[in-house]
Structure formats: C-alpha cells, structure tokens
Amino acid sequence: MANFVVALWESVFQPGTSPQLVVATHISFFLLLCVLGSQIYLTKNIHFIALTVIATLLWITVTWFIFELNSIKLSSNQDLQAAESKKTDVVEDSGPVESETSKETAQTDQSSSTPRKRKTKSRRA
C-alpha cells in the first residue's frame, strides 16, 4: 500500500498517465458514486440524482481522456527543442523571411507612436 502511494505521488509530476494514477482516479470516482448512491437511498433528493448523473458523465469523460492520452505519443522537452531547432535551422538556411506578423507589428509600431484622441461622453448630473 505504501509503495502504491509513493508511486502515485511520483506519477503526479510525470507527463502522461501512469497505472497508479488511473487506478486512483477510478477508485475515487467509484467511492464518490457510492456516497452519492447512499445519499439518494437515504434522502431521495433529486439534487443527489443530478450530482450522480454529473459525476457519472465526468467519470466517462475522464476515462475517455485517459484513453486518448495513452493513444498518442507524448514528446519530451528535449524532443520538442530538437524539432524547434531543426525548424529554425531550415529557416536560417533559406534566408530572411518576413512573415505577416512582422509586417503587422511594424504597422502597429508606427501607428502607436502618435497619440490618439479619446472620445469621451460628457455626463450631466
């Protein structure tokens, strides 16, 4: 049990999902639904029924999200930096390229140097 808690705590700081995190998520949702089910049985309050429906839909959504995370390959920071450096190397080799955003920035820099008059509405008391 202590090993599971340590592995769960360490998995929180790692990218992606770990088996301990998935198990803890399912246990938490199961216990939440047990508590809500007991409250429905004891009080027969419609609010607990609504909360049970919301919690069930959230559990389904989280399970789907975990499945989607596991189906894609997560890139580490080093992989992302290597890909970014390859992109910048290709751009530098091809010569200077002026993008649309740099043109827009130049236009906004020129227009921002002159102050604009503010239109204010006068209030009558």
Provide keyphrases for this structure.
single chain, 125 residues, 5 helices, mainly alpha, flat
Describe it.
By secondary structure, the chain is mainly alpha-helical. The chain has a domain at 2-71. The chain is 73% helix and 0% strand. The protein is built from 5 helices and no strands. The chain has helices spanning 2-11, 19-43, 46-71, 77-93, 100-112. The chain is flat. The N and C termini lie far apart (72 Å).
Please summarize what this structure is.
This protein is mostly helical. Helix content is 73%, strand content 0%.
- Envelope shape: flat
Distance from first to last alpha carbon: 72 Å
**What is the number of beta strands?**
0
Rg over C-alpha atoms, rounded to the nearest angstrom: 27 Å
Query: Portion of residues in helices?
Result: over 70%
Low-confidence stretches: none
Largest sheet: none
Provide a count of the helices: 5
Structural class call reads: mainly alpha
* Mean pLDDT over the residues: 78
Order of helices and strands: HHHHH
Strand and helix layout:
Layout lengths: L1 H10 L7 H25 L2 H26 L5 H17 L6 H13 L13
Helix pairs in contact: 2-3
